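Input chain follows. Return structure tokens only.
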Amino acid sequence: MVLARVLGATCRALASLVHRIAAARVPRWTRRWATADRYDLATAVLFATLIVLVISTFRDYAISNDEEVQQRYAELIVAYYRSGFLDQSVFHFRNLYLYGGLFDLVALGLQNLLPLEPYAVRHLLTALTGVGGIVAVWATARAIGGSRAALLAALALALCGTWYGAMFNHTKDIPFAAAMMGGVYLLVRIGRELPRPRWHLVVAFGLLLGCALGIRVLGMLLVGYAAFAVIIHAPIFRGKTWRETLVFLTRSTLRLLPAFVLAYAIMIATWPWAALAPFNPLRAMTAFADFHYQIKTFLDGHVYYMADVPRWYLPTYMAIKLTLLLLVGAALALALVALPRSEVRIENAAW
């Protein structure tokens, strides 16, 4: 509550400053800023600050343990295509064939265009993608809870070291998470327009689904999310007949079908192993279910191998790594969900 008041006062001061500037004779775009939502203005300042920080510091990050092999994986994918599919070494390079190479291919292409050291290009690209992930979180929160909730969500993620600290080096996890969050945002928008969402939303969802699948097979979760979005918007829950519901489901599925086709094309283009057999993506998913490295981790005075950690390892890890702002916010969200809607409105009014 204190944080909300501080944010509110800061946003009001920012809005007042912009209004004073707009009072003078200034260009039209400045007057538009003056009438913009104060929380959106604060968010714009946040995003600009993040971009400046990224551009100022991306050269300062060292190479992580995964980056060298991912760089090599992209080179092998290019060699596979250049050889007319004859160079099969990409399928025998460690276990990288189980992953899509979309990010690595984009980074490799940019390395030929930008006057930067190859790994600096990777760090700049993944950091900007990480900022894009924060934008996706903001957009989703804004679509659901308004501009103030969106600002809080963006701040919470930007101030989370697990995200900001990782977004310069984790060139699989950060782009994958950003693509997944962007896909979720589009599904929120699409769900409100079913059974005939606008085509630009469908195409954008297909692109982001393809990007997620082109990095990790777990991007298939977005397909499940899409099915869930269609089901919860089905007219049967609004007292309509089964016939009307069947028509709704059919039209919605056909409308989303081009997105799935586009995503599949992106996936097989950037993940050669997935193109070898139709069920290879499913085989990759089952392979990850029994994934084990000889990596040791330390927990409560004991050393465990990665596959042998106790069940309470993950919640403990999350409690330690996530910021108090995120943990308190998650607890408050769960508490508010449990309250009747009338009481939630009263709480929101108090904020």
